[in-house]
Specification:
The protein is an all-alpha fold. It has one domain. 80% of the residues lie in helices and 0% in strands. The chain is built from nine helices and no strands. Helix 5 packs parallel to helix 9 (155-206) and helix 6 runs antiparallel to helix 9 (155-206).
Amino acid sequence: MISERLLELSLIGAEWVLWLLFALSLYSIAVLADRVILYTRTREKIAELEPGLTAALTNGDLDGARQQVKQDSLVRNVLRAGLDAISSGKRDPGTVEQTMMGALSRERARYEARLTPLATIGNNAPFIGLFGTVLGIIQAFHQLGKLDASQAASNQLVMSSISEALVATGVGIMVAIPAVAAFNWARSNISARIKHAESLMHAVIVGLSNFETAPVKESSGK
């Protein structure tokens, strides 16, 4: 009884699987476009940032250091959080470091947004395609079983039915490869930014002593 019910569901065919893969492909493209726009708009330009920031930290120039990190990017946003803490009067290395670590966690979440579904699509699209192929083969053999002996013996008919079923596997692989490549590219991009951020965070902590004599902004409370 159960097998008959499952057979009825299987005979729906694989076309809906192809539409699902098409939708997943469009979603992957949308996620990739969104991440490319974000990563391009927030290019780090470390070669420009590091020399100016290091010089400002060495000279105890807090305003100059903050000027170097005014733009929006993962590294600059993390460093700006630490420099803002110093500007507000915090001089404890542990406090400044924790402030930057908190900012790093927020920025990492921002840059990794939507990557998990992308990885899921890349890992599972081939299996979805294979499932469509299985459904197509079940439908093909069910239809062949209804033909008379002379028609069922035709190799051309059998091969045609199976080749149509295999399309779903091919589509699944086509959807998976770009998704996996996009995910790996995004993770590599984020990893590089985090390494730069951690390196410059250390530079801020080391240069903290140079700000000991820097003026601290006082509240204008009456």
